[in-house]
CD1c molecule (Equus caballus), 355 residues
Amino acid sequence: MLFLQLLLLAVLLPGGNNKDVVQEDILFRVIQISSFANHSWAQNQGSGWLDELQTHGWDSESGTIIFLHTWSKGNFSSKELVELELLFRVYFSGLTQRIQDCGCQLQFEYPFELQVTAGCELHSGKTTKSFLQVAYQGTDFLSFQNMSWVPSPEGESRAQRVCDVINQYEVIKETVFKLIRNVCPRFVLGLLDAGKMDLQRQVRPEAWLSSSPFHGSSQLLLVCHVSGFYPKPIWVMWMRGEQEHPGSQQGDVMPNVDGTWYLRVILNVDAQEAAGLSCHVRHSSLGDQDIILYWGHQLSMNLIPLAVIVPLILLVVLALWLKKCCSYQNIQRDSSPCFPHCNENCTAQEHRTTE
Ligand SMILES: *[C@@H]1O[C@H](CO)[C@@H](O)[C@H](O)[C@H]1NC(C)=O
Ligand SMILES: *[C@@H]1O[C@H](CO)[C@@H](O)[C@H](O)[C@H]1NC(C)=O
Ligand SMILES: *[C@@H]1O[C@H](CO)[C@@H](O)[C@H](O)[C@H]1NC(C)=O
């Protein structure tokens, strides 16, 4: 559904950069990070991710799933979720126990870390990939393929030994198979549907320019900042007229804390050639109204503080003058309330002075 909407947007968007704005695949994965300090100390962290958005956490104290969004339960019933939670709880404690008991046999050396990523990928509603991969000390170790555990070349003989052991457990293999091939795609479709308000929201980017001189040379580093947009696909380019500037360098799209995205695109130019350059931003939230910022129009930005300061100074002068007027009044007519008189007089005077 997300795909369909994005496709529709892409069709509506003008220009030849549609491919940059289309998001076709959706990936859901569960990430596990287990740290083993010694024979008696281990810690498990778990989380669920829909592409780059975290949807679930794991409370290892209570052994419960943390649902990070109102829609994080998808369309699964409480019963099914409780069963999954129990499965994860048994898995985490069982895994820790087994490794603590026979870690030496498997020749794991303390301290060590295991990372597991498992999930499925969907392409317009159809499952294209299901996977489970394990890394030991940050290096590929083994994976689950076609109903059996396969060692990675990097895992060497240690991975082979581990696979030989766990391949004997048919129940585990069947459970894993069912989880990644059946439960995962079903859950993701439910998630996409329940979370569509959030996942299909459109948040417009804000854009601004900045620059800095480059290593004391005549070069300028121009930076086009684009922030606060959602969804992630975006197109940002430095242009001269209608021509894309080949020197544009795009950074990584970084997450903001509120779930929106940030991107900067930089350009090194000779200071004299900076005039006439502009930064163009195209995003699904903008329809066909690209944001265009012209370099050099920055000057008007510098005038903004002046436009604020001048009226401020005038206000202060007026206030001081009013105050003076009040004390004068007080001396003149002692206990009389100051302001009514003062205001009358001052506004009258002010009118006179401005005329
Ligand atoms: C095991 O590691 C934990 C965490 O680093 C530490 O606090 C504890 O003292 C260690 N225990 C032993 C028996 O080495
Ligand atoms: C997967 O396993 C099945 C049965 O064990 C076999 O028939 C099939 O060819 C295997 N597929 C691959 C890609 O290895
Ligand atoms: C949830 O939605 C998906 C996709 O629409 C559907 O296949 C599934 O049967 C629904 N219900 C459950 C409990 O998975």
User: Anything to note?
Assistant: The pocket of 2-acetamido-2-deoxy-beta-D-glucopyranose (ligand 1) is lined by residues 37-38, 40-41 (CB under 6 Å). Helices lie at 2-12, 78-102, 156-166, 170-194, 196-199, 298-332, 338-354.
